[in-house]
Structures are given as structure tokens and as C-alpha cells.
């Protein structure tokens, strides 16, 4: 389905019945990232899986900013009159969730993120160097986004007061110290570092993600 938000055409898929849950994928991906997760979540929840602006079936854009993507999510909630949806975001989707939950503390009932960072320096050096090489070759604005943003402050994190679950793999491309910094900056956040997992292994088309989210959403969704 398509919806126009903030001057952008955003594509999303809706499935299931129950309390609302919004899913947002990572950089350069689509809602298909969650093809394994969605059928399971849909047994208990109404799941809204979005293609972020400039991704998948959503309209293309010339430049990207996480704040704009966060405002798209806010506008989506408002346009569909969703009452206290829960939110899960992977990688860039997690960044979007942090920004939205910080700026609009009462928007979500619960927030779950995985593989998110507060600044570009939160990624391991090897990944940052690889992004630099990729950008020099392709001039891809999505890579430029990751090189310049996000810039989420400790003060902004402290405004997130809803139940929050922070996930990352022990072999993640995000520094473990960065993941811990996010968790310590959000009051009463729950942190889980998953042994043996990398940035993508437990998320992308993986059955491992559902059990991690199931209990959390069941406890905190309205």
C-alpha cells in the first residue's frame, strides 16, 4: 500500500491483527528484510512494515537525513491514527526509532532497536573505511548518509522514557561500547549482546529475531 507523507510517497505492507507494531529496515534494504519475522509477529500484532523514503517501492529522493525518515514514521502513525504502536528498527531503522522516540516521547508504547549507532564514529573503523571507499567509487547518497549522520546526543537519549530493548551482535559492525552507551543513556533500557552474531545474522530473513522481540512486545504493547 502507498501513503503520502511529508511530501513523500511511502510504501508499506500491513498484516495480522492486534496491537500495532511498526518495522523499519536498514540502509539500502526494504521491508523484505523482515520476511521471516512478519508472519510470526502477525499472529499477535497488526504489523506495518515500511519502505523508508528512497528505498524499495517508496519514492526516490536526492538526499537522505535520518531526521526526515523519523518524521515520516511520526506522520505515518498520525495518518493511520495508530494508538501507541510499538516500534522495531534494524540498523538505520534503529537510528530512526531513537530519533522519533526522543523527539516524541509518547508516540510509541515500546521501542526495540538492533545494530544502531549514535554517531558515525560508533561504527568500527574498518567499516568506516569501507564506506569511504564505497562512496568514492559510487557517490551513493545512502553511503554519504552513514558517513555524516546520525548525531544523537546523550541529552536526546535521556528523553526516551518508554520500555526499550537494545540488541546487537557480539561481532557487530557497531562498536560494543557504542551499543552500551545507547543502553546506558536510556532510562531502564534492556541490553542484549548476542554471542556469535554479526550485524545481520540474527535479523535479515532470520528466525532468531522473533523470540527476541516476542516477549518484549507482548509485555509492553497496548
Indicate the topology.
Elements: E1 2-5, E2 8-15, E3 19-24, H1 37-41, E4 45-51, H2 66-79, E5 86-90, H3 92-103, E6 110-114, H4 125-138, H5 141-148, H6 154-157, E7 164-169, H7 176-185, E8 190-194, H8 209-220
Parallel strand pairs: 3-4, 3-5, 5-6, 6-7, 7-8
Antiparallel strand pairs: 1-2, 2-4
Helix pairs in contact: 2-3, 4-5
Which features does this protein show?
222 residues, alpha/beta, Rossmann fold, 8 helices, 36% helix
Describe the structure.
The structure is a single chain. The protein has 222 residues and is α/β, with parallel strands linked by helices. The chain has a single domain (2-216), classed as Alpha/Beta hydrolase fold, catalytic domain (Rossmann fold). The chain is 36% helix and 21% strand. The chain contains 8 helices and 8 strands. It has an 8-stranded mixed beta sheet, with helices on both faces. Helix 3 links the parallel strand 5 (86-90) and strand 6 (110-114). Helix 2 (66-79) crosses helix 3 and helix 4 packs antiparallel against helix 5 (141-148). The protein is globular. The mean pLDDT is 96.
